[in-house]
Amino acid sequence: xxxxxxxxxxxxxxxxxxxxxxxxxxxxxxxxxxxxxxxxxxxxxxxxxxxxxxxxxxxxxxxxxxxxxxxxxxxxxxxxxxxxxxxxxxxxxxxxxxxxxxxxxxxxxxxxxxxxxxxxxxxxxxxxxxxxxxxxxxxxxxx
Length: 143
Hints:
- By secondary structure, this protein is mainly beta.
- The chain is built from no helices and 10 strands.
- Strands 1-2-3-4-5-6-7-8-9-10 form a 10-stranded antiparallel β-barrel.
């Protein structure tokens, strides 16, 4: 799958299922390095404040690292990667003291010239809720 390019679109953010949807523009650049590593850099906004995110995904192994200045601002989130026909599935957990760890899942996919990034929050009981959805189109003039 060819991920390379500059993409732009709309980012949607939910804090709870059925809650208010916060929308903002998002721009994303993806670059596959020698078909071994996928680098993804994106910029979006929350309440008119700029936010950034970075993903480094192994395309030959099964790990990835993620940083987002809104979701995981204090550290890198290291997670598992599963390659699927429709794209990449990144999954792992994060601490939620004083309770048990919660899960987080990121999917990256491309279909009909669009780049789709979704993020899901997963309760300790395994209930999954869409937290972020970014649908992006390739920028004009970007092959």
